[in-house]
TrEMBL record:
Biased composition (Low complexity): 22-32
Region (Disordered): 17-38
InterPro entries in alphabetical order: Gamma_Secretase_Asp_P_PEN2
Main location: membrane
Protein's name in the database: Gamma-secretase subunit PEN-2
Keywords: Membrane, Notch signaling pathway, Transmembrane, Transmembrane helix
Subcellular location: Membrane
Species whose genome carries this gene: Capsella rubella
Keyword Transmembrane helix: yes
Signal peptide (from-to): none
GO biological process: Notch signaling pathway
């Protein structure tokens, strides 16, 4: 009968796959991945070694990475907060993997916090100054802006 009606053969397989009896359910007993070789991409990702820098194996060793992360963090306080951004960028794998490299992570997370605070303060100041302008600062505004420094110092030749 199945030779003449392939739909009935398909329907009987569907009913057997919904049954709880394993002898009637050949689909449930079968390996969902018929290829005995595992997926090479998943094994590469799961067995990949985590490196402290974005350079991977070409980058710094863990001991040197701690020293560089500490230097970037400390020099960020010397009015160079963009080094905090560089620290976060260069040691991005340390930020991504929470349990890897705890000594380096300490400096990188602090750099991320410092850069975020710096960016928020700089943005707030810039927006206040540009939106508020002369209405907010009054007559002091002309002394604060930098576009008329040459005029004030007599360097433009117009005064």
């Amino acid at each position: 009968v199945f030779h003449f009606f392939p739909f009935l053969k398909w329907l009987s397989k569907m009913e057997a796959s919904q049954s709880d009896d394993p002898s009637l359910n050949p689909v449930r007993n079968r390996n969902p991945n018929p290829d005995p070789a595992p997926n090479p991409l998943s094994t590469i990702i799961s067995s990949a070694q985590v490196w402290p820098t974005i350079d991977g194996p070409l980058g710094l060793t863990e001991e040197a990475s701690v020293d560089y992360a500490r230097r970037f963090y400390k020099f960020g306080f010397a009015l160079l907060p963009w080094l905090w951004f560089v620290n976060c960028f260069y040691f991005w794998p340390v930020l991504r993997h929470a349990r890897a490299f705890p000594q380096i992570r300490n400096y990188v997370v602090r750099s991320a916090i410092g850069f975020s605070v710096f960016t928020a303060l700089l943005s707030a100041w810039a927006l206040t100054f540009s939106i508020g302008g002369e209405q907010l600062f009054g007559p002091v505004y002309d002394k604060l802006v930098m576009y008329n420094v040459a005029d004030r110092l007599g360097l433009s030749g117009l005064a």
